[in-house]
Amino acid sequence: MIWDELEQELERLQRDGLQRRQRTLEGPCGPLAKIDGRTLVSFCSNDYLGLSTHPALVEAACAGARAWGVGSGASHLVSGHLTPHAELERKLADFIGFPRALLFSTGYMANLGIVPALLGRADAVFADRLNHASLIDAVRLARADHQRYPHCDLAELERLLANSQARRKLILTDAVFSMDGDLAPLPGLLALAERYDAWLVVDDAHGFGVLGRNGRGSLAHFALPAARRLLYMGTLGKAAGAAGAFVAGDERVIAWLMQRARTYIFTTAASPLLAVALSASLDLIADGDARREHLWRLTAQLRDGLAGTRWRLLPSTTAIQPVIIGDNQTAVMLADALYERGLWVPAIRPPTVPAGTARLRISLSAAHSSEQVGLLVDSLRELPCA
Question: Exposure of 289 by Cβ count < 10 A (0-12 exposed, 13-18 middle, 19+ buried)?
Answer without folding.
Answer: exposed
